[in-house]
Amino acid sequence: MHELSIAQSLVALAQQHLPADVSRVHAVTVRVGALAGVVGEALHFCYDLATEGTPLAGSSLRIEDVPLVIHCDGCGQDHQLAMPPVFRCPVCDVPCGDVRQGRELDLASIEYDTDEDAPP
Amino acid sequence: MSLTPRVLEIRQKVLSRNDELARALRARLRGHGVFTLNLVSSPGTGKTRLLEVLLRRLVERGIRVHALVGDLATDNDAQRLARSGAPVRQILTQGRCHLEAEMIAQHLEGWDLEACDLLVIENVGNLVCPSSYDLGEDARIALLSVTEGEDKPLKYPAIFNSADVAVITKVDLAEACEADLGALHANLQAIRPGITVFETSARTGTGLDALLDWITARQSERGASLQGAAPR
Ligand SMILES: [Zn+2]
Q1: Angle of helix B47-60 relative to helix B208-229, nearest 10 degrees?
Q2: Partners of B36 in the beta sheet?
Q3: B158 and chain A: CB distance < 8 Å anywhere?
Q4: Most buried by CB count within 10 Å: which residue of A16, B11, B119, B174?
């Protein structure tokens, strides 16, 4: 299960980006492509392990699923594919492997409070 | 005081550190004229058996091949592969189900890359985890045996879509296990249109020459392009 490695990389990357005045992290959002080879449920589980003892402890992980999209030169259009995919243009019915979206494994955003946000 | 949390937009690849290390590694290997393969498969495809034969035949062809073998625990595979005469090193992953670029860089230390034409990396037996990790390879080869079922590429689209070559192993068993090779080829093309496919058997030797010719041709292109670009 590589989701633990991925969660650890995610936490390390998020920590690099955390502003100095963070008092509490609410949520971290990741974008996970249909072709990224990552299981969301496993990533949630591993996220809790990986955040333990870090400033991200207690925060929640939000996963935005990114569908698989190919581009066909024949019709000049983008097409969304279901999983498991068949890499053919649904309009032209020819093989098409030009992936435009769906491999993402990105840290999208961090939601947090700063000290000055805290009630007086 | 604000009532809603602040949102910091980042949009950066989670594995950007591995990607950077892999890019640097690829540049370094190419700079030495090394052609690099990353072999991925499920456990039980006969990857080590095939690799043992390939390494021996590559050595016979005069290719200076080195191998890195990723394994969860034991070093039996590396010992077996070292019988080919090629330098072989084991990468113990300590429970990790995949190799990362940093492990490759560490295990290349002390090897004279000027005396290496071809680097073969045998990834950990797993078709899910290695797909996310670039190792700086020039080509990714996915292995699958006829005993695993024709729908294997559909079950693991991420890895088969990221592969440049598919090698079907144990074709000598195709009849016995009633494998539908036509369907297997169709499924590979459905997941990765245009993928190069070899049917092989390490036991009978079927298809090995074709695979070796492909590897040798790609490797010599690398050497030739290097000599053209910067004569040594
Ligand atoms: Zn089309």
Answers
A1: 60
A2: B119
A3: yes
A4: B119
| Alpha-carbon span B47 to B175, nearest angstrom | 20
Q: Are strands B139-145 and B35-41 parallel, antiparallel or unpaired?
A: parallel
Backbone dihedral angles phi then psi of residue A90, each to the nearest 5 degrees:
-70, -20
- Whole-prediction pTM value? 0.92
Check: complex ipTM more than 0.90: yes
Contact state of B10 with A116 under an 8 Å Cβ cutoff: no
Query: Among B45, B224, B58, B216, which residue's Cα sits nearest to residue B139?
Result: B216
User: Cα-flanking dihedrals φ and ψ of residue A23, to 5°?
Assistant: -105, -30
Query: Taking CB atoms and an 8 Å cutoff, what residues of chain B touch A87?
Result: 161, 190-193
What tokens were used for B87?
């330098």
Tell whether A6 is within 8 A of chain B (Cβ).
yes
Can the peptide bond before residue A84 be classed as cis, meaning omega within 30 degrees of 0?
yes
Q: pLDDT tens digit string along A41-62? A: 999 999 999 999 999 999 999 9
Contact B134, B52 (CB under 8 A): no
How far apart, in Å, are the Cα atoms of B81 and each of B72, B115, B193?
A: 16, 19, 33
Closest CA to A106 of B60, B219, B162, B9: B9
